[in-house]
Structures are given as C-alpha cells and as structure tokens.
Amino acid sequence: MYHQHPKDAQQIGKMKEVEEQLLKEKGTKTLSGAEAVVKSLLVEDVDLMFGYPGGAIMPVYDALYDFEEELRHVLTRHEQGAIHAAQGYARATGKVGVCLATSGPGATNLLTGIADAQIDSTPLVCITGQVHSHLLGTDAFQETDVVGISMPVTKWNIQVTKAADIPWAIARAFYVAKSGRPGPVLVDITKDAQFGELEFNYKKCESIRSYVAQPKVNPHRVLEAAELINRARKPLVLFGQGVLLADAKEQFKSFIEKGDLPAAWTIMGLSALETEHELNVGMLGMHGNYAPNKLTNECDVLIAVGMRFDDRVTGDLSRYAKQAKVIHLELDPAEVDKNVKTDVAIIGDCKLSLKLLTDAINSNEHSQWKKEFEKLKIEEFNQVINEELFPSEDEPMSMGEVVNLMSEATKGEAILVTDVGQHQMVAQRYYQFKKYRSNITSGGLGTMGFALPAALGAKMGMPHREVVAVIGDGGFQMTIQELGTLFQTQAKIKILVLNNEFLGMVRQWQDLFFDKRYASTEMVNPDFQTIAKGYHLETKKVNKREDLKQAMKDFVAHDGSYLLEVMVGKENNVFPMIPTGASVSDIRLK
Amino acid sequence: MKREFTISVFTEDRIGLLNRVSIIFTRRHINIESITASESEVPNVHRYTIVICEHQDLVEKVVKQLNKQVEILRSFLHVNDEVVYQELALYKVPTHVLAEGGEAETVVRNHNARVLSVAPEYTIIEKTGHKEETQQLFEVLEPYGILEFVRSGRVAISKPMKEFKEYLSEIEVASAH
Ligand SMILES: Cc1ncc(C[n+]2csc(CCOP(=O)(O)OP(=O)(O)O)c2C)c(N)n1
Questions:
Q1: From the list B61, B171, B174, which residue is nearest A338 (CB)?
Q2: Mind telling me how many Å the CA of B59 is from chain A's nearest CA?
Q3: B158 pairs with which residues across the strands?
Q4: What pLDDT does residue A4 have?
Q5: Cβ-based contacts under 8 A for chains A and B
Q6: Containing H/E element for A275?
C-alpha cells in the first residue's frame, strides 16, 4: 500500500537485525558506500531489483554478490528493460520498484522508463553509478549529467558524492518515491562515494519539512460535494489510477453503490472496479466506450476520482462537460483546475475522502439515467463490438476476438500487461477484469516496448498470479531482447503477440487522416517463432481462425512462458474513436 | 490579459533546485523577465524572486507546480501592488561628459542616482528603483554615451505582515502528518 507508513516496529526490527549482523560479521558498523547501498535497500525491505552492471556501479554489484539470497538482482538485457520491469513490479505489487545502472549510457537508457514512471505516478528508486567526483564536469569516460537530464522527469533526484550521505539519500528516496503521489526518484552515486567508508546508521525517512505528502481533507468541501451529488439527476463518476494508488477499492465501491453512480474508467484506473460491476459503464477517452464519452456532455454532475483529465480522455476541453458541475477528488493540488475547472475540489487521499463523501451522500437511485448508458451500450455493441468480437468467417481474425478468447481462457483473472498501440486499446476494452489491480499499461507516455519487461517484473512481484502480456509486432521488437531475461529467470509469463505486420495505430491514423499514405508503417518482420525458439521459449503461431481456440487453451494451460503469435487483420481499425481536437460527444462509431 | 507577477519561492538550500524551478517555466514557454536568488531571514532557507509577464490562470498553475517540488517550501504569487520591490542599475559613462557642462551631473542628481566610482576615463553611476525609472535614466544618459549598462533582477518584499517563519511552522506541521 502506498499511503501508509510501513509498520514501524517491523522496520526497526529489520534495521536492528541488519546492524547486529554487521557488528557480528565485521566487529564494527563501518561499511563501504557500496555496502551501505545494499544494506539500505535491505532495511527498506527490497528483495528484488532489476539492473545492468558497468564500470561506475561495479562496487555496488560487488557488494551485492554477498547478498544474492536476501536481495535478488535480475540481470536484464538492456537498462530500459530493467526499468520497465521495475515499473511492472511496482504497479503489480504497490511496492517501490528498484533498478540499478551504470553511468553514462546505462543511466540514459533508464530515461524513457523514468519519464514513463513520472507521468504514470509509479514509485521507483533508480540508483546509478557516476564517475569519480573529481572527474565531474570534465567529460570523463561515461560521464553524463544524469541528475540534470532526469530533473524534469523525476519526482526528486540527487547526486551523492560522499559515502556518509548514502543512507540518508536512499532513505529519502524511498520516502519520496512512495509517499503522496508516487513517482520515480534517481540517486546518482559517484564511484568514490561507493568506495568511501561510513558508519552505518540507517534512519528511515518519515517526513520532509518542505513536502506535504498527505494534504488534509477539508470536511467543508466534502459537504459541498455531497450536496451537489445529492441533487444530481445525471451524475457520472470518472475514476483513474488514484483509486488504485490510494488502495481505495472498497471505499470507491461503497461510494458509487450508495449513490447509484455510473462510473467510467481511464486506462490507468482500469481494474479498480471489476468489468462486470453493474455501475461500470466502461472506458473513457479516445478509444473508449460510446456511452460514457457521449454522456460526459450530458451529465449534470461529474465526479472525478484520482484522475487528471488527460487530453486523451477529454478531447477538446472547450467542449468538455461544460453543462456539468465538476467535483474533483485528487491528492495532488497541482492537478486541480489544471485542465478542467472544478466547482468543488476535495484535495487529499481519496481513500479517506471517498469514505467521508460516502457518509455524507444520500442513498440514491438513478435508473432512468442508467438506462441511457444501456441504450448507447447496445448501439455500440451493434455497430462495433459485435463485429470486433465475432467477425464473420470470411474476415481475417480481429484483435478483439483474440482478446475475448484470452479473457475467457484466463477467466478474467490474469494481470494484463499491454504495450502501446491498437492492441492496447482493444485489450483494455475487451478484457473482462475480475480482479483488482490487474491492468498494467504505459498510459501517460505511451511507451512502446513497455509490456514485455513490465510483464516480467509484474510476474516476479506476484508469482502466484497469471500474467499475460499483449503486444503488437512493432512494440515486441522494441524490447524483444528481454526474452533473454525471461529465459535466464525462468519466469512464467504468457506473451500474446497480435501481429498485423504494421505499426497498426499509426497506420490507422494514416488511413483516417492522411489519405492512406502508409509512410513507414509497414513492418517486414522476422520469424518470431524462430526467435522464440532461440530463447528456448514454447511458441505457436496461429494463421487460421479454426486453430485459435485450441491454441489459446494451450497458451493458458502451459506451465511456463509461452509466446502465442496470432496473425490478425492487417488493416483493421479500432473504433469508437474521438479524433484529435474533437469533442468527447463527437465520438465516432465508424 | 497578460500582466506582471512577482513569484517568491522559498526553498531548502540545495544544489540543482534553481534548475528544477526554471524547468517549470521553460516547459511552458514562459519567459522569465528576471530572477534573483538569495538567502532569506530564516537560516538555510533560500528565496528566489522571479518576475514574469503572463496570464493569471497560467501563473497560478505554475505556482502549484512549484509548490509540488519536494524541496520547495512554499511559493507566493503577487501582483505588483502587493509587494515593495526594487531593481538596481549600474551605468558606466565617460567621465568627461560629467565634468564638462554639468548637465549630466544634474541628470544624476534629478534621478536620485549616485556616483559610485570615478576614474579618469569613466564614472560609474548607480540607481535603484523600478525598471521604468532605471530605464528612464538610461535613456537620458544615452546621448552622452553609455559605455556599459547592467540591471539586476527584481528583489521584492511582500506587504502582508505574516512572517515566513509562521508559514514555515504551518508547513512543518502539514508535512509531518
Ligand atoms: C517508443 C515509441 N515510439 C513510437 C510510438 C508511436 N506509436 C504509437 S502506436 C505505434 C504503433 C504500434 O505498433 P504495434 O506495436 O505493431 O501495435 P499495433 O498498433 O499494431 O497494435 C507507434 C509507432 C510510441 N508510442 N512509442
């Protein structure tokens, strides 16, 4: 859980344990900086990290060698793989993801993942090695100003040049990463700091005076919001990742159930509420469902919970929910009024504000209003969904039918990890989530190559869960090297590649908005089957519909990693769609 | 409508923070008219005084982004009549223009400027005031030949009586949770 303090007693116990062990081993608490890195991670309860070694971080790797049991390090095939794995781990477990890289190229290879974690509020601690402090600023071998480069995309970052500062910096890093609105933190440690010595006294960071992690909920705002909700005849709830980050599953459900409030999700909020729930009215935004997008411009009270009105969700802001009173439950004050002006903002942890709001609203019933969602849902089903999930025999296989079968085969109980593109939209539209916190995707940054390593990280964090990565043929090749990590770790993930031999999403835009001028979107692909075999991966390719069902069964049933490649329609488009610049209510079914 | 705002940012004393602050402006393509960094009356607390010309709603968003930074204690947004502010300008002019005729000397006196240093070839004049005032003196001196000119960023003190220390204790309570 992100928001609560770690069980202090347990933490202190752990700290003592580490310190006592040290005293026993060395007769002193003096450590090298590199050892202090490892010990600090242990005190922070880290047992798994992802990384890639190199010159400037070698002392830390050397220190890790003695702790292979307590602190497992997964060697990825690229630093981008390491950080996406750490993200997948963090998103699946709710814990802080940790990754390790060397200076220069090692550090810069982390940047895409750092930016991704920043925009998707994922708690990460990234530790990078840096050249010797006397070489800083001299363009030394593998020196980059990673603190400078990563500043706009980290919640906080720091360069440590003295061994004695290491425990302090790491303690602070963990606190910043996971408290409040989570985010990535980078700690850059010079090589001399890693070699230097210090007295190891780890003090967990529990507050920073310049940083308010948990703003207090204002009860007056709660009452104002409750009044608006009680008077509403057409309320609509929009929920985002904030519900998951606050771990407010039950509070959220009680809230919408008591008020009988239809609730629509952003892709970051997906799986906070099971798909089948009577009040779940579907996906918001560009490729979202027809009803919630249309009715955003008809509701009278819009209640946004832990979401940030991203442009992919709102479409044209000047024609977005102008008729509605807007209530925003949000932890980060900077998100309030950023894109959509609110009438009532309840700043604070939504686990608490939802509870207060639920207490303050009347039990209600909105059957008339809910029927409007039903009506539009049927329209969308008839015009889009039916054909996507059950295409006629003469049509090529569609992404929707594959995802639908996968959803059935996994009983909606898997952790779904998606890459970026058409398959991402389709998978999230059609997977029938039964379990909480089960959707992992690159939402804000849209990072192709995210899914494969993120799925690996998710699986290592939640070994008892089935993890399925749905990936396009384009994105697969962006981090395909991580099949090597998969083989080395023997993690068991299922990889479903939906191969349309195109950069599908871009091709769709070319089709719709650029006169079908398919500039650089056609993919001449390698034989993924051969590649998979090279990595000793069970694999199967499906070309024909009649083989699909059985293949899907085998895919899910297999005890081990598996690559299932399905050849889908080359030029299928994802609908509905809100073209860029259009209003949510101008959503197109065709 | 764009107007002039003074933002006072109180921060911890930490390397790199200025970069973090300026990124927030450059990201949104906001031109910083001036920026001044200094210590404050509270030990280990630094303050930046930033002047920008922008729309109010945009500036408010920027201030929230500033406040969100882990090591920024608090930022305050002020329009000009909520602060007392000054800038300092230095003018280097040829000494002979002051010596001859005495006209330039009157100019200096009338503008409440003062002579900081006199060398045989040049004289350095200092004036503090609002930008319009230091600019006015610039324009008056220009015909005599200005050899060098520099103007500092704005420093500003807010009019309300609440001390930053009070804010600080509020922040400390809120951050301790
Ligand atoms: C790293 C990166 N580069 C480029 C893009 C732009 N982009 C978005 S979707 C897409 C196509 C993805 O193609 P593919 O992985 O085959 O998935 P599909 O859309 O066909 O399902 C591209 C190129 C991106 N999101 N990320």
A1: B61
A2: 11
A3: B83
A4: 40
A5: 63
A6: none
**Which pLDDT score, from 0 to 100, does residue A24 have?**
63
Residue B103 has what pLDDT? 76
A448 CB within 6 A, ligand 1:
yes
Given this model, what pLDDT does residue A13 score?
66
Q: Which residue of A has its CA nearest to B58?
A: A338
- A128 phi/psi in degrees, rounded to 5: -120, 145
Ligand 1 atom 2 nearest Cα: A448
Residues of A whose CB is below 8 A from B177: 207, 212-214
Give the tens place of pLDDT for each residue, A287-341: 999 999 999 999 999 999 999 999 999 999 999 999 999 999 999 999 999 999 9
Whole-number Å distance between alpha carbons of A230 and B46: 47
Q: Does the distance separating the beta carbons of A214 and B71 come in below 8 Å?
A: no
Minimal-distance CA residue of chain A relative to B25: A152
Task: Give the mutation target among A426, A448, A496, A500 for probing the ligand 1 site: most ligand atoms within 8 A of CB.
Answer: A448
CATH topology for A390-567 is Rossmann fold (3.40.50)
Architecture of domain B86-151: 2-Layer Sandwich (3.30)
Q: Which CATH superfamily, name and number, covers A219-373?
A: TPP-binding domain (3.40.50.1220)
Element (H, E) at A84: helix A79-93
| Percent of residues, chain A, with pLDDT higher than 90 | 95
pLDDT digits (tens, 9 = 90+) for A483-541: 999 999 999 999 999 999 999 999 999 999 999 999 999 999 999 999 999 999 999 99
Task: Mark yes or no for CB contact B71/A211 under 8 Å.
Answer: yes
Q: How far is the CA of A447 from the centre of ligand 1 (A)?
A: 8
CATH of domain A9-200: 3.40.50.970
Report yes or no: A176 at the B interface, CB cutoff 8 Å: yes
| ipTM value > 0.90 | yes
pLDDT band at residue B104, thresholds of 50, 70 and 90? confident
Half-sphere exposure at residue B168, Cβ-oriented, CA atoms within 13 angstroms: 15
Instruction: Looking at the structure, give the CATH architecture of the domain made up of residues B3-84+155-161.
Output: 2-Layer Sandwich (3.30)
The residues, ordered by sequence, that sit 6+ positions from A254 with a Cβ below 8 Å of its Cβ are A354, A355, A358
| DSSP string of A19-71, one letter each residue | HHHHHHHHSS-EEEHHHHHHHHHHHTT--EEEE---GGGHHHHHHHGGGTTTS
Distance CA A74, CA A88 (A): 13
Active site residue ranges of A: 79, 141-142, 191, 505
In chain B, where the domains are located: 3-84+155-161, 86-151
Question: Which of the residues B22, B26, B55, B68 would you substitute to probe the A interface, choosing the one with the greatest number of A C-beta atoms within 10 Å?
Answer: B68
User: Which atom number of ligand 1 is nearest to the Cα of residue A523?
Assistant: 16
Assign A174 a pLDDT band (cuts: 50, 70, 90).
very high
Spatial CA neighbour of A187 closest among A166, A159, A163:
A159
